[in-house]
Amino acid sequence: GEDVEQSLFLSVREGDSSVINCTYTDSSSTYLYWYKQEPGAGLQLLTYIFSNMDMKQDQRLTVLLNKKDKHLSLRIADTQTGDSAIYFCAESKDSSASKIIFGSGTRLSIRP
Amino acid sequence: DAGITQSPRYKITETGRQVTLMCHQTWSHSYMFWYRQDLGHGLRLIYYSAAADITDKGEVPDGYVVSRSKTENFPLTLESATRSQTSVYFCASSELGEQFFGPGTRLTVL
User: Fold this and answer.
1) A/B interface, count of CB pairs below 8 Å
2) Tell me, what's the pLDDT at B57?
3) Which of B31, B40, B103 is nearest residue A41 as measured by Cβ atoms?
4) Do the chains contact at A45 and B92, CB–CB below 8 Å?
5) Residue B13 — φ and ψ, nearest 5°?
6) What is the DSSP string of A35-55?
7) What is the number of H-type helices and E-type strands within chain A?
8) Where does the pLDDT of residue A10 fall: very low under 50, low under 70, confident under 90, or very high at 90 and above?
9) Are the C-beta atoms of A86 and A32 separated by less than 8 Å?
10) Which residue from B38, B2, B18, B23 is spatially nearest to B82, judged by alpha carbons?
11) Which residues in B lie closer than 8 A to residue A39 (C-beta atoms)?
């Protein structure tokens, strides 16, 4: 079956890099996403990667995909207090986003 | 307002009552979704719709009813609310790729 797993919590010091990890089970996943949820708000798409890519970089964000191990990670460089949020890993098979499977989310907290 | 909105933002109701949560989007997106978010479960899909008058069950549809008579609206009804339906409900819409989420409705069933 389809499943996306993440650790529930991560705490990092301000200025350090944060690495949030995710594993998924469906090898036919084509699109892999990272969504961010700030307190009291809905989810917002941070970045996504196609399954034929290994890496995608966007300013402070780096997404790494290991398709063989079905492992996705999100690295946030120079973590700031504004990065405190819940980060959801998600996967889907097609670009219509008609069926996205979300992980449980990783709560990132920043300590001074 | 442009975007995707949900109403009410907060609702308290009693067991057995009917409750309708509203969702409205201004982009004319084809797809719309309802999720519930609970601690330890992340987001679970309740129902989704590919177009007006087309709806499909998601992972946890029991106890919920949806309709989509107009592209921009996708109401979710709890026909007889139960305590287990206490949750935060998110509506989303999409056309290609990215799903856009509403701000959520926090529902408490006493």
Assistant:
1) 52
2) 93
3) B103
4) no
5) -140, 180
6) EEE-TTS-EEEEEEEETT-SE
7) 0, 11
8) very high
9) no
10) B18
11) none
Residues in chain B: 110
- Provide the pairing of β-strand A9-13 with A106-111: parallel
Q: Are B53 and B67 in contact (CB under 8 A)?
A: no
Give the chain A residue nearest B38 (alpha carbons): A104
Tokens representing B37 are 């978010």
Between these two residues, A95 and B51, which has the higher pLDDT value? Answer: B51
Contacts of B99 in chain A (CB under 8 A): 43, 45, 97, 100
User: What pLDDT, in 10s, does the model give residues A48-97?
Assistant: 998 888 999 999 999 999 999 999 999 999 999 999 999 999 998 776 66
Token pair of B54, please?
A: 């087309």
Q: What is the DSSP letter of A68?
A: T
Task: Please state the length of chain A.
Answer: 112
The residues that bridge with A73 in the sheet, in sequence order, are A21, A64
Q: From the CB of residue B5, how many other CB atoms can be counted at a distance below 10 Å?
A: 15
Cis ω before B8 (30° cut-off from 0): yes
Closest-CA residue of A relative to B31 is: A98
Residue whose entry in the numeric block shows the structure tokens 């309740």: B46
Subunit contact B104:A41, Cβ cutoff 8 A: yes
Asked if the Cβ–Cβ distance from A97 to B97 is below 8 Å, we say yes
